[in-house]
Structure formats: structure tokens, C-alpha cells
Amino acid sequence: KIHHHIITSRSMSMAAGVPWMLGMADTMWSSIAPLRVDFGMIGLVFGACAMAIFVWSYLDYNNIPTLKVDLTEQERTQGHLEQDLKLSKSGKHPKGEGIGESDGQVVCYDPATLDVLGKKRIHTKEEVEDKVRRCAKAQEAWAKTSFKKRRMLLKIIQKYVLEHQMEICNVSAKDSGKPMLDAAFGEILTTCEKIRWLLAEGEAALKPEPRSAGSMMFYKSARVEFHPLGVVAAIVPWNYPFHNILNPVTAAVFAGCGIVVKVSEYATWSSEYYERIIHAALDEVGASRDLVQVVHGFATTGQALVKAKEISKVVFVGSTGIGRKVLEAAAENLTPVVLELGGKDPVIVCDDANLSQLVPIALRATYQSCGQNCTGAERILVQEGIYQKFLDAVVPTVRGMRQGAPLAGLVDCGAMCMPRQAQNVQALVDDAVRKGAKVVVGGSLKTEISKGQGQFYPPTILTGVTREMRIWNEEVFGPVMCVERFATDDDAVNLVNSNPFGLGSAIFSGSKARAKAIASRLKTGASSINDFATTYLCQSLPFGGVKESGFDKFGGVEGLRGMCYTKAVCEDRLPFLVTTVPPELQYPIKPHSFRMVCGIVHFFYGVGLYSNLCGLCRLLKALVLPGGKPKRVPPSKRD
Questions:
Q1: SS3 for 512-540, per residue?
Q2: What is the pLDDT of residues 30-51, one digit of tens each?
Q3: Which of 370, 374, 413, 417 is an active site residue?
Q4: What's the pTM value of the predicted model, to 2 decimals?
């Protein structure tokens, strides 16, 4: 009864309060009614803002100068040139001239058709040194430019790249033998991302960086400043002719440096067009063309560049063997060197990985640009439980891949850029087969594909690769997928770390924690989780390897700052709080000077409050009880 009474009372109270609550709500609504939201008006405002942003963006884009770069007839022609003049299979010019340094020129040719594209004179040692000197003079003025001007230079280049992707890729395909799609990925996409990162974050990376001043210097302000090194030398390979030039050039000029690029003798023809783009952009911002220069030649040209006295740093991308020679040449002037050398990048496929996701990625990682990638997938390590499933998934696709002259039709794989590289790949495959490996697809050198003769090696799959085979330890740099088994995660880690190279790696697993745990144990310069080589497209990250893959970094904050020398700066935080040497520490020293310094050190660097107080006591004791006069040292014992 009592319970019923309470419920009834509460119900009656609530019922009595309903009219009051409704009245209150009506009063509140009346007070805010004039403030009711007009969604139509909001839509109008947002639309106006969006239109204003669009108009501003349009005007900003059109404010960027548009370059006009003249192309030669060969550069302008879409597709292969189908020249009557072709290089012979022995690497000789039809008129009997070789392409070696002794001929005084570089014979440029299309590796897919052997069409001779032209001859370029080799720069002599004296010419290289003169270019470096002129670059150094131009850099002195460029180092004083604002970041606003440097950003404009990069925007001009980026605008040209976006509007002339076809021309850039067409020239690259002729000179390096890659399909247009591969050129779009490796030449355009990566270069645009590089420029985007420099525009968005480059200035912040080079601004003075505040640092802590420490305990005793609490009244000081400390910072690190980044100043342009001067003239940087870059020796770059042939696999991505456009990106390999623009990558170091954009970083160097944004940091305030000048740069001289020595291109590969196998990418000389395309470099002239790419250099004209850069020079046209320099003209638009009123900078000297001497700021960025390209030199052509062989080993002697590269050596002259590395040994030039005005060179402040060398960036080398290439083989481990040549990297050692560059390092040796640079030692003469103690010039610092960045070495990005070979790689045997592994793809680790765990038994819980998503095959439908990773198989297309593994194929692209292996056969992109016919396997001629610094971070190409050279080893596919597949856990035993899904080993056969992986093979069943990749074999049909590789068997069906089309190969041929990339500009003559739709192909998946193009040509090998370097002469004799196809034969080198065949030698590695033959050695592996002799020692027990099995060729599942390809594995046989082709000398004739499509029309004409070119430098081709077919997409290949090898299984059963073991440590005693050359292909286990040597970089293939060709379209060969080596599929290897592993039992446990520890086995996979050991297989990777036993290799002399350590550039990049990729780990695929359904468990991100498992993939990250494996990645943390790999001795490589980069790891991509459930993807491949994404670390390179993240241009905020540094790029470089360990062990025989080289040292130091280019790319990212570290690479951009690497174009500068660092200066440590310390100054007074407040004008009235400055360093003075107390009388007890001035010359001539006092008997208690040493004890006083000990007390100061103990006070500032004590381990906890108690220790600090002990130090203060030592300091006060040294000041209050300074002790007697110092003993005189006889003249005979003075040093």
C-alpha cells in the first residue's frame, strides 16, 4: 500500500507539472524563433565560398607562368622512330663506331628497336670543371632568394609536367624502353609527389629549429640553422631518366643549392629535353641557367665531377661496385657522399595474407619497368601454407604477359635499357638452374620480339632458389620473380637478413601487429606494411639503405636538410641576462676555484632535489671557506 501510494503521488505530481513544462517550452521557442536556421541561406553562403575558392584557385594557377619548350622532331614524334640507322647486336654503331669512351661521344639509341637516336659529345674534364665553377657563381646569388621564389620555380616545373605528360613519357619510353604506363608511374607520379611535398613542407623543414639550452645555459636561446651547401653533384642511373634528374634537382634548388647532374650514358638523349625544361623554368624566375647543369659522358666525366673542388656533396645512385669508386674519388677532397646502391628487396607473404590483394601488387613490384627498379621486388618469400596457392595465382598472369617495343602496341613489359643486361640476367638464371632451381615461366633469352631486334628478357618465375646460387646474393635488375618458401616468421627474417643488401622490404599479413613485428627485425632501410615500396611515394620519408645498399639518405626531411650544412647557434634570451665570469674563476685562478666549479656542477646536474641541495652546499662552502693561498710552483718545474 505504501509503495502504491508513493507511485500514485509521484504520477499526480508529474501530471500537474506537465502544463508548466509545456508552457516553459513554448516560452523558450518563442524567444529563439527569430534565430531559426535558414538552410537555404546557409547553402547559398557555402556555394558562394566554394565559388570564391574556385575562382581564387583558377587565378592562382593562371598566375603560374606557362613554359614553352621546343622539342626536336625525334622528341616530338609519337612512337618509335623506325630509323634505317640501327645499332648492331654487338653494341656497335652501323658505321663501325663503338659507344665506348674512347670514341669521344655517346651513341644514343632506342633499346627496344636499336634505332640510333643521335650522338652526344662527351664533356671533357676541363668542361666539367668549368660548368661546376659557373654553377658555384650562380648559386651564390640563388642562396639569397626567398622561399617564395623557390616555390614559384617548382610550381612552374610542376605545371609543365602536368600539361606535358605525354611528351615526357614518350621521350622516356624511347630512351629507356619502358611502356608508357610504367613511365607515368615512375617518371610523372613520383616527380609530382616530390614537388608537392617540397611546396607543402619544404620550407618548414629548413627553418631554424629551436633546441633546448640545457641546465647551466637556461638563460640562453639555442637553435639549429640550415644553410645551403653550395654546389651538389648528382650521378644518376638510366632506369627513370626524367625522375632521376628532377629528384635531386628540385631538392637542391629548393634548399638554395646549385647542382650539376651527370646522367647515365644510356639516358643521354632524353636528358637534353629534360634540361631544357629546367632552364626554361629558371628563365621565368630570373635565375641563371648555370644553376642547374647536365653533363654527359662515361667514367672519366663522373670522376671529374666528383673531384671538382667546388663540389660540396655527391649524391650517387647506382651499383655497389661503382659506388665504391665514387667514394674513393670523393675522399680526395673529403667530399661527403650519399650512396644509394643495389638492393634485393624481399616481399614476405605470411599464411594469413590476403592473396587477392597482394598478388597484383607483387606482380607490379616485380615486373614494373621490366624489373629495372632500385626498389623492385627481387625475392618473394611465401609461407609454406599458401606457397602453392600463390604460385597458382601468379603463373597464369605472367605466362600471359605481352612483351615488345613499348610504343609499337599495347605491351606489359618493354625492353632492357642497358646493353648486355639481358645476357647478365640469363647468366644468373642459368647458374640457378644448374644448381637446382626450377624455371616455371620464361627463363630463356629472347633476341627478337615484335618487329626489329631489341634488348629483351621475358618475364620469368624461378622457384627453389637457395643460398649457393648467384641470384640469391646478386641484384638481378630484370623481370625475374624468385619465389622462395619459409616455415616460420623467424625463418623469413633470417632469409632477409642473411642477404648482403638492405634497401627496402614489404610484409603482407592479415595481422598488422604480426607484420609490424616482422618489419621491426628486418635490417633494411624501409619497410612497407601490406603494400610495396609505398615508403618512396611518401616523400616526407628518407630514402636509402644499409649494408651494401649504401648509406645516408636522400628524400624527405633528412634528404632536404642533407643539401645544407647545419650551424649551431646560441644567444642570450634576454638582453640584461648575459654571461659574466665571476672573479673566483678569472685569471689568475684562486685556491678554491676548482672546488667552486665542482659545487656548480653538482648543483646543476644533481640526480634529484637532494643531490642538487648537496651541490649547493658544496658551492657555498667553497665560497665561504675559500682556503689558503695556492702553492707556488718553482720555475724549474713549470712547463
A1: HHHHHHHHHHCCCCCCEECCCCHHHHCCC
A2: 555 555 556 778 888 888 898 8
A3: 374
A4: 0.88
